[in-house]
């Protein structure tokens, strides 16, 4: 399948591994960029072997490495560094997510290409950023989510903070990097110059923290964890139904609240002047939540959701992946794509956002280690088969 999307014609060199940098590269490749992923010859990116497997390759890899050309280069060897340098000199974008200073030791930092490739957009992802007192600290997503303030507000009061069962800090950082790259490429059309994009995992999560800073600065308020609710917005909560399933109800608009309480059998609360606006509802949150919890406990989830739909109250179920895969709306919106792995179909998630005129697409799933060597090293760098074989014998490539 020929590439399509707004980034067709841009070449990206992905030096990172694991998740944050590769997810940024995944997004760029989905929307048309040529993504050349440099992997170590001795096993490649560790995610090839993480979590659920089919054969000797993880299912995660098939999604995360889609549309990428895997090229094996050992960056611990001078010959490997030279190959990477030649590729970067012909690239529009570099993505790296090593500890600050590592690529400079290899001579592959952004300053090393100021003269040879002045239009290079260089995205750097690290735990704490390229400078500051914590720059050299190892920064995994789990740790950075905690320091960002994100973990603190998750969970129930008096209990240990919880994390989503996802590497959300990495993914959010990858989105930030892709956004920064897109903005830098847009600016480059006028200036002709590249620039460095400095993405920190802790700062990407900090970017999600809404009003916690001004609330603390102005009123001294430290937002605390609030279980399944959101502090200062009522009612919005998760309720257990008679059939044991949970539903989410967002009834915090003034007119929505009135419709919700009528549907829940409490017209007196719908007309109560104390509850007419959000500040009053916050003051009487326990009373409102008790009424809604009792209502939900007395009926099944499907029936409740139907009543809420009829009342035009935002509500929905708590889905697991099986629910999503079987949901007609998810399928109608094209949220799944099917690829073929060794003759067997595999469903992977589509990537968003949707673009009407230049949509993205999965052209191929994540492939074998070094699958792009011949094309990239041969066609792009002009290495003959004999030269590649010599490099292979020297363990520079695989």
TL;DR?
This protein has 398 residues and is α/β, with parallel strands linked by helices.
Commentary on this structure:
The protein has a six-stranded parallel sheet, with helices on both faces. Helix 1 (20-30) crosses helix 6. The two termini are 26 Å apart. It is elongated and about 85 Å long. The longest helix has 24 residues, at 168-191. By secondary structure, it is of the alpha/beta class. Strand 9 (236-240) and strand 10 form a beta hairpin. It is built from 17 helices and 13 strands.
Number of strands: 13
How are the strands of the largest sheet arranged?
5-2-1-6-7-8
Structural class: alpha/beta
* CATH class call of the largest domain: Alpha Beta
Q: Average the pLDDT over all residues and give the rounded result.
A: 97
Which residue ranges are poorly predicted, with pLDDT under 50 across at least 5 consecutive positions? Answer: none
**Rg, Å, rounded:** 25 Å
- What is the string of SSEs from the N terminus onward? EHEEEHEHEHEHHEHHEEHHHHHEHHEEHH
Straight-line N-to-C gap: 26 Å
Quickly give the CATH architecture of the largest domain: 3-Layer(aba) Sandwich
Shape: elongated
Largest sheet: 6 strands, parallel
Quickly count the domains.
Answer: 2
What is the CATH superfamily of the largest domain? Crotonobetainyl-coa:carnitine coa-transferase, domain 1
Helix content: 25-40%
Number of helices: 17
- At the fold tier of CATH, the topology name of the largest domain is Rossmann fold
- The amount of beta strand, in percent, is 5-15%
């Amino acid at each position: 399948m020929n590439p399509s999307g707004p980034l067709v014609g841009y070449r990206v060199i992905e030096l990172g591994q694991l998740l944050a940098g590769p997810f940024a590269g995944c997004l760029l490749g989905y929307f048309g960029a040529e993504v050349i992923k440099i992997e170590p010859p001795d096993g490649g990116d560790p995610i090839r072997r993480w979590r659920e497997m089919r054969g000797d390759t993880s299912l995660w890899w098939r999604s995360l490495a889609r549309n990428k050309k895997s090229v094996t280069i050992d960056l611990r060897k001078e010959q490997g560094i030279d190959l990477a340098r030649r590729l970067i000199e012909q690239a529009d974008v570099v993505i790296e997510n090593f500890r600050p200073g590592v690529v400079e030791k290899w001579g592959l930092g952004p300053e090393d290409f100021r003269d040879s490739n002045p239009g290079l957009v260089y995205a750097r992802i690290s735990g704490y950023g390229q400078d500051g007192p914590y720059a050299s600290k190892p920064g995994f997503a789990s740790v950075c989510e905690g320091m960002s303030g994100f973990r603190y507000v998750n969970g129930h009061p008096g209990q240990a903070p919880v994390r989503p069962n996802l590497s959300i800090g990495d993914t959010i950082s990858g989105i930030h990097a892709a956004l920064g790259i897109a903005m830098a490429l847009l600016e480059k059309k006028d200036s002709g110059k590249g620039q460095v994009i400095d993405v920190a995992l802790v700062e990407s999560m900090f970017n999600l923290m809404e009003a916690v800073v001004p609330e603390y600065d102005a009123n001294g308020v430290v937002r605390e964890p609030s279980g399944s609710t959101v502090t200062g917005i009522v009612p919005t909560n998760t309720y257990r139904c008679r059939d044991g399933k949970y539903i989410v109800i967002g009834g915090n608009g003034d007119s929505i609240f009135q419709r919700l309480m009528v549907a829940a059998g409490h017209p007196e609360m719908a007309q109560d002047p104390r509850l007419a606006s959000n500040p009053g509802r916050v003051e009487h949150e326990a009373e409102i939540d008790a009424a809604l919890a009792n209502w939900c406990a007395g009926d099944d989830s499907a029936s409740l959701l139907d009543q809420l739909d009829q009342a035009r109250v935002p509500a929905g179920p708590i889905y697991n992946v099986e629910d999503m895969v079987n949901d007609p709306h998810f399928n109608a919106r094209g949220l799944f794509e099917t690829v073929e792995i060794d003759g067997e179909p595999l469903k992977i998630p589509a990537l968003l956002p949707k673009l009407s005129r230049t949509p993205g697409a999965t052209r191929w799933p994540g492939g074998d280690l070094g699958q792009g060597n011949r094309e990239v090293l041969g066609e792009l760098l002009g290495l003959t088969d004999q030269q590649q074989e010599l490099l292979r014998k020297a363990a520079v490539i695989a």
